[in-house]
Amino acid sequence: MKNIPWSIPSLDNKERKAILNVFDSKWLSQGPKTKELEKKISKEIGGKYVIMTNNGTSSLICSLLSHGIGPGDEVIVPSLTFVATVNSILAVGAKPILVDNNPNTFNTEIKFIKKKLTKKTKAILPVDISGISIDIDEFRDFTLKNNLILIEDAAEAIGGEYKNRKIGSFGHTTIFSFHMAKVITGIEGGCIITNNKKISDSAKLIRSHGEVDKYNSKIFGLNFRISDIHSTIILEQLKKIKKFLIHRNRLAKIYQQELSDFNFQEIPDFVTMHPYMLFAILISPKKRDKVNYFLNKHGIDTRICWPPIHRQTFHSKLFKKEKFIGADSVYSQIINLPMGNGLSEEQITYVSKMIKKAIKQF
After folding, report:
1. What are the extents of the domains in the chain?
2. How distant, in Å, are the alpha carbons of 106, 226, 277 from that of 280?
3. Cα pseudo-dihedral 89, 223, 210, 140, rounded to 10
4. Residues 6+ apart with CB under 8 A from 12
């Protein structure tokens, strides 16, 4: 029996040497390597200002605070997302307003958001599920016309493109994550990218307790700082991002060819680069759990992610009686298959073979 992990990064001697160089420099906390990384991400993505943080959740909280979002404000957010997106809104004292998702693309759309607008709506926080971009032009036009803040949760989307432009290069506040399972990793880490200097300056203060200088806090802030050890890993990973994207798209193509009878996440025409942070297959709800158990039993790690927010044990208390047909439809069918920079084509072919074997049994 093979043992195929769900997501495995590609780390080699270059990352090891980079870590040792930071270790030998005696500057381990946020410092010169973090500044270097911020400049490199800005150049790679095309956004003016980059603010590194210790993880994607911190980037979301810091972004919300930087835009002055807090108690009394409503933030519209999709139900189909990882809990961090909604928890960030709760953390700043604002009220999350859930909306549904397109059951084919998995992303939310303006048509769902229009139904939930109120006088208290201050921001929209859409999510790029699996790395597929939202319709950025549509979202930007809508938020500008309605005087709303747009914060894009692109935690899974670094390297992705919308109409041949990189996600994060459009000016509005966007966040990325560098968690272990992401397209490029720092083990942990996150960043905010924006073209707004005021938001950038505010985020930098908030990231470090609101301090303008040592022990002098000008505004409210928290400790969202990243270490130079994490930053130097991301720097090395960033050099390989094109190679990683090619590899992930190659693995996705094998899945699509081998499993052509199955349904996948639909990719809109405006997506010109899919980073495939996740690769999902949709299977009949009657068979999904049986197939998933079969794969796990045969050494193939998978994820059923995520339970929509309105179905989470804690959050369901906050969103009683609300129904989200699209989000529930995706969750009832989805299996996220192994996908990662460290996985081989042979492993992906084997996973595909076992899925077909499982379907025949059930």
Report:
1. 13-238, 241-361
2. 10, 31, 10
3. -40
4. none
Of residues 4, 279, 5, the one with CA closest to residue 156: 279
- 3-state DSSP call for residue 238? helix
The contacts of residue 104 (CB under 8 Å, 6+ apart) are 265, 266
Into which CATH architecture does domain 13-238 fall? Answer: 3-Layer(aba) Sandwich (3.40)
Q: Are 63 and 175 in contact (CB under 8 A)?
A: yes
CATH number corresponding to 241-361? 3.90.1150.10
Residues 265-290 pLDDT 10s: 999 999 999 999 999 999 999 999 99
What is the SS3 assignment for 52? strand
Over residues 185-194, the pLDDT tens digits come to 999 999 999 9
The one-character DSSP state at 188 is: S
Single pTM value for the model: 0.96
- Token pair 């930087």 is found at 66
Q: Is 326 helix (H, G, I), strand (E, B) or coil?
A: helix
**Considering just the CA atoms, what is the radius of gyration of the chain in Å?**
20
6: Cβ contacts below 8 Å, ≥ 6 apart: 181, 301, 302, 303, 336, 337, 338, 339, 340
- Residue 132 tokens, joined: 């597929």
DSSP for residue 316: G
Bridge-based pairing of strands 279-282 and 334-337 is: antiparallel
Structure confidence by residue, pLDDT tens digits, 32-86: 999 999 999 999 999 999 999 999 999 999 999 999 999 999 999 999 999 999 9
